[in-house]
Design a protein that fits this description.
There is one protein chain. 38% of the residues lie in helices and 21% in strands. The protein is of the alpha/beta class. The two termini are 35 Å apart. The relative contact order is 0.13. Belongs to the glucose-6-phosphate dehydrogenase family.
Amino acid sequence: MTNCHQVAPFDYVIFGATGDLTMRKLLPALYYRLTMGQVPNTARIIGTARSPLKRSEYQTRARDALKRFVKTDDFDEDTVDRFLDMIHYVSLDGSKPDSNWAGLREVLSHKAEEHVRVFYYATAPDLYGAISKNLHHEGLITDDSRVVLEKPIGIDLKTAEEINEGVGQYFKESYVFRIDHYLGKETVQNVIALRFANPLFEAVWSGEHIESVQITAGELVGVEGRAAYYDNSGALRDMVQNHLLQVLCLVAMEKPNSLQADDVRDAKVAVLKSLVPLDASTLPTSTVRAQYTKGHSKGATVDGYLDELGHDSNTETYVALRAEIDSPRWKNVPFYIRSAKRLKAKVSEIVVTFKPSATKLFPSQPEKNVLVIRIQPDEGVSWQFNVKNPLDDDFGLWETNMDVHFEREFSVRYPDAYERLLLDAVRGYPVLFIRRDEVEAAWKWVAPVMDAWAKNEVPMAHYAAGSWGPEEARQMLARDGQIWHEDME
């Protein structure tokens, strides 16, 4: 990577350091950045959790996590040892004022030079305010301390406002980094480059030329070990309110004045505030919720959601929404947002369908041009367009694809989203993090959907595990004369 510089020495204090997120994502991300020379040798990672572990015991857990989640070819014993030397551990319940704060203060006090101090809250969001209050009471928040908040920021607008207020009492907004790992994905960031660094796309990126946009995040797996969490969340809260609305903002926003954080985030907020509200008249035809039932996935028979859960539930594992943006650029262009468990394939992508040519020049009507931005897996871009069929003397057309696979094209390991985001917080660079007004604007738009679904005003549909979802979602697009991307192929 050509522009990866070493950051200033830092202390990363992780609350929830024994949890799955820390072991699966945070520690491997910091390890990879150490291998790239971005993490200085004097940096420290200070894990805190309620578990009464010794430092050596936590280091052993960290080694096991790296062994499991770092690619074998990237696991270097000398680098791992150097990384483990950076790791400290304090047994501490961050939500309680009478916990072992003296232990954390002692570790933080032992440093040879000034360090940037970052607090990472990998805990339940309802603890964010209490942790912030205790850090303030203990005098551990320095003038430029940063705090990273994991999603979800609340479960609705009210709780989001409470969390933002609780943290905001002790950290200035410019030092609050609300993380959405989708924004850390290189392919998502590439939407900005694709749109504004290529005059071809910049010229046609509007409702004058674009017929529809689809944003999909689908998984092969079911809820598995996250059933208890997922049943209190659902696909709408878990994916749409944060990740997919952020993607929509990047696809639809006006060109920002610069790539500085507030200019980009101002442009995104403008999109969220321009989303046409969904109400009683549009909810039945513009939203679909569903649960997967018993089916086949990866060659095996799998249980339905309620079977996995063990009891009845009104929580959706599939959501599809039809959104419109009230702006001159996007007037009457439908944006279809979809997220689901147990689909036929794992896919996260943006599909932009361009309007067909009005010309009658050719004997057959040209196929619509389609641009596909693959977020994961197989990150890249595919451009579907029409050429003359070389076997047809009468100017018959042939649909073809220009396909770019980023990892193969650039001959580099594609980094995990958390790698950049963790060090952007150290740098104090918030462009890929979410501002408070973004969070609250997103909750305001999804609130009527959540309320209607809670009252069963939109019936629960069903789809077999291993399929592409319920028939109701196809019908939603059919009313606009559109089809899902998998049906185009």
